[in-house]
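RECORD TYPE: inverse folding
INPUT: structure tokens
STRUCTURE:
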């Protein structure tokens, strides 16, 4: 299973799922970014348990072209309650609220759910589940 945020592309009108995270602030390491973003968005802590998968991502979302370098760290929640409930409210810095939940990786692999960035899904297709999965 993978813990993700359900988002909506307003131009395409379709939902997609992305891991929890955000933008690195000046002077901040990528590991510190993960910890800070999870605290800000979910009011909890995670422990980084391995090396990141690094992905260069070219995309279009809400009609805007984008380009980013993403670091996906395997993490585990420090609070067990995040493994007992299915859905959580995630709050963005701009005040918007989204639904965060556990989804089955197989639902992304079979096309039932759209996981972004697409390169992340390719990591699963190539058998790198141990790198990306968040487990207790």
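DESIGNED SEQUENCE:
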């Amino acid at each position: 299973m993978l813990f993700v945020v359900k988002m909506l592309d307003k131009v395409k009108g379709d939902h997609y799922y992305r891991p929890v995270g955000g933008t690195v602030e000046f002077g901040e390491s990528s590991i510190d970014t993960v910890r800070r973003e999870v605290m800000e968005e979910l009011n909890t802590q995670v422990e980084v348990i391995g090396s990141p998968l690094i992905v260069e991502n070219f995309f279009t979302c809400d009609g805007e072209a984008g380009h980013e370098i993403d670091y996906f760290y395997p993490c585990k929640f420090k609070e067990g309650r995040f493994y007992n409930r299915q859905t959580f409210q995630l709050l963005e810095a701009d005040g918007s609220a989204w639904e965060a939940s556990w989804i089955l990786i197989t639902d992304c692999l079979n096309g039932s759910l759209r996981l972004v960035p697409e390169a992340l899904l390719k990591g699963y297709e190539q058998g790198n589940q141990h790198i990306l999965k968040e487990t207790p």
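NOTES: The two ends are 11 Å apart (CA to CA).
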